[in-house]
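Moderator note: this is an archived Q&A kept for reference. The question asked for a predicted structure of one protein chain; the sequence and the answer are reproduced below.
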Amino acid sequence: MVHATRVRLDRWLWAARFFKTRALAAAAVGGGKVELNGARPKRAKPLAVGDRLRIRRGPFEYLVVVRALSEQRGPAGVAVTLYEEDAEGRRRRERLAEELRVAPAFRYEGKGRPTKRERRDLERLKGE
């Protein structure tokens, strides 16, 4: 794992395994899903140790402090050492994950195009 003094934001997000590809990380930064020290950065913004990041992925939000820099993506165990997550942010994210898990799933209510079986029943009712 190569450690540098300054690393591009999109590259660090990819190395820390918040996004699967650098392109996805760059798109998230460009789309305003990532804040650096309370401001909306560009994807090439250099990161330094101690910077605070707010990363939104779907319904979840990660509040992290940069603890180490790396330009290379490594194992998940090493990626976790690159940042320190805020305890309150982690609790909120886990609570939201539990609420989403327990929430009732959306169900199909039979509206829309009929199935073949329903179509045959309708034809039988119409007398065709």
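Archived answer notes: The chain has a mean pLDDT of 90.
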